[in-house]
């Protein structure tokens, strides 16, 4: 392994000037600090702190501009390009962007980041010493979390998706809360790195939160539909209530208005869970 590695910040001595800049050395290896990467404070008679990266030809190079992330640090970086067969490129604050390999992205293209999304990443080298950006693991994200309290219930929040799974979507909110979005609490599955706006619908004992991306009216409709469907199942799949029932009957049985009841039934019928016949509502049997 080489002493000088891309993705690290090092302090090197100035060896000699070249047509395109200055060569720096650690005593064993040399690297070029191009004129375009030099800052005003550069003094060829003094050691210089630089970040090492790979230029567009894949050669190790140096810059006096400090990046947003290194091999030893994590930070939020913005997606600036997408290559379907390769992955996505993120800006780390330098003249050259860094690739996040598709191996470190979700399998489904629909939830992969697009330009403008943000990822919490570090830098890494592969076996060929090529520099990549890598999204943080759950263990790393845990270090960023703060605990929510019960008073945060029903609070509107903004967060960024840091993990997309079959079970649901995980976000970190602007406050630092770890949030989980069940697939029933969203219209579409958010992308990794996407900014989302939602509402806290539960605060867990460990300080994490459950979040809904649905509008409050939609959430109420979903709750009402669940209440009606649960009652239907308790009766063995049939109940003597339909959209023709009297409002006072609906209010007495379900504690909801006739309008809310009809919306709940409409949702269940749209989902093909129930059907109505002669004033009764029945479960659709598979």
From TrEMBL:
Entry's Gene Ontology molecular function annotations: nucleic acid binding
Coiled-coil region list: none
Gene3D superfamilies per UniProt: Nucleic acid-binding proteins, Winged helix-like DNA-binding domain superfamily/Winged helix DNA-binding domain
Domain S1 motif: 154-214
Signal peptide: none
Pfam families, per the entry: CvfB_1st (PF21191), CvfB_2nd (PF21543), S1_2 (PF13509), WHD_CvfB (PF17783)
Similarity comment: family membership: Belongs to the CvfB family.
Protein name, per record: S1 motif domain-containing protein
Organism: Bacillus aerolatus
């Amino acid at each position: 392994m080489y002493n000088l590695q891309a993705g690290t910040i090092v302090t090197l001595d100035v060896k000699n000037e070249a047509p395109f800049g200055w060569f720096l050395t650690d005593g064993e290896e040399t690297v070029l600090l191009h004129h375009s990467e030099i800052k005003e404070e550069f003094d060829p008679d003094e050691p210089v702190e630089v970040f090492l990266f790979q230029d567009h030809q894949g050669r190790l190079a140096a810059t006096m501009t400090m990046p947003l992330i290194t091999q030893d640090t994590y930070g939020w970086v913005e997606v600036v390009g997408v290559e379907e067969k390769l992955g996505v490129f993120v800006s780390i604050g330098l003249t050259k962007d860094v690739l996040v390999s598709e191996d470190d992205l979700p399998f489904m293209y629909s939830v992969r980041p697009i330009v403008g999304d943000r990822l919490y990443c570090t830098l890494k080298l592969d076996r060929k010493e090529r520099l990549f950006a890598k999204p943080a693991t759950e263990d790393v994200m845990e270090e960023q979390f703060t605990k929510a309290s019960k008073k945060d219930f029903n609070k509107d929040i903004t967060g960024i998706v840091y993990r997309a799974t079959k079970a649901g979507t995980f976000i970190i909110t602007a406050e630092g809360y770890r949030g989980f979005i069940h697939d029933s609490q969203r219209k579409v599955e958010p992308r990794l790195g996407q900014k989302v706006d939602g509402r806290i619908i539960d605060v867990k004992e460990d300080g994490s939160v459950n979040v809904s991306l649905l509008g409050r009216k939609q959430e109420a409709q979903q709750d009402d539909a669940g209440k009606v469907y649960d009652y239907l199942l308790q009766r063995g799949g049939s109940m003597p209530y339909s959209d023709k029932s009297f409002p006072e009957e609906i209010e007495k049985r379900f504690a909801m208005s006739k309008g809310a009841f009809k919306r709940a039934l409409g949702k269940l019928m749209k989902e093909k869970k129930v059907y109505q016949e002669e004033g009764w509502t029945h479960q659709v049997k598979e």
